Amino acid sequence: MLRRLMTVAALVALAMTAGQGTPRAQAQDCPRGQLDARYCDRNGDLVADAPTNPRELVDPSVLIFAYTPVEDPAVYRTVWQPFMDHLARETGKRVQFFSVQSNAAQIEAMRAGRLHVAGFNTGSNPLAVNCAGFVPFAMMASNTGAFGYEMEIIVPASSTAQRIEDLRGRTIAFTSETSNSGFKAPSALLASQFNMRAGRDFTAAFSGRHDNSILGVANRDYDAAAIANSVLTRMVARNVVRPDQLRTIFRSQSFPTTGYGHAHNLSPALAEKVRAAFFNFNWTGTALATEFGKSQPPAEKFIPITYREHWGVVRQIDAALEVSYACR
């Protein structure tokens, strides 16, 4: 059931359009692990290597940037503008914001060559890495290096539900099948610790985004929702919802936040400039600092990360759910 949800619902659009916009790379005889056949991983870091054929490298005049669709994309176009201006100065390229409406659309865009730099949410990082050649290298953190968020299961403040077991027979909202905190982690929790499965013990609804799920619980459209508490913190800070409208009945361990990176086939010189732009960006007084500084811990800078190390717990959850990273 869960595997079908992931591979069918999340990837059907991707399967229909993958490869459009750029020629499909020929499969190579090289180490690749779980990567799609068009990629190689000769150094064993679990992400796609840059192509060895110079003709397969890209050096676009316009860099397309997208932020994961955890909330309304319109909010984040303005928030990210100072960084995009900085990225343009560092690379000498024009930078354009791409408003994506779903994780699947964002992955599809990078796989097809229409997206060059992006932040993919925690849960969709493994699929972006293996299916679209995404190379994550940065994550937001506090000035002390603290980072992460927790998955919470929330209910309306007036709900009679006090424990997860009280959600039997009720409607639980998830965001999308590619979301770690919005679907994969809570699904694994409900099944392994509480023997609760969608369709049998509760009704699953999909809201599309964390803000939709949070507003749905606040307005009692859903009996409960699985959400990223970093999104909830920012919504409370913006007065979109009030803390007294919601109550948390479960909080998970900490997970890595959105991973930022570039397409594997950027020219090495351009890829290096993109990386440098993240790490030398001055957050002080920017809209980015105002928005993401509301998180706990506050996001105040970008720190270097590796997919192998920082996404290990997410890959373990995927393995428990038998999630496939196949791009067919």
TrEMBL record:
Residues 1-27 form the signal peptide. Keywords: Signal. It holds the Pfam family Phosphonate-bd. Belongs to the phosphate/phosphite/phosphonate binding protein family. This is Phosphate/phosphite/phosphonate ABC transporter substrate-binding protein. The lineage of its organism: Bacteria, Pseudomonadati, Pseudomonadota, Alphaproteobacteria, Acetobacterales.
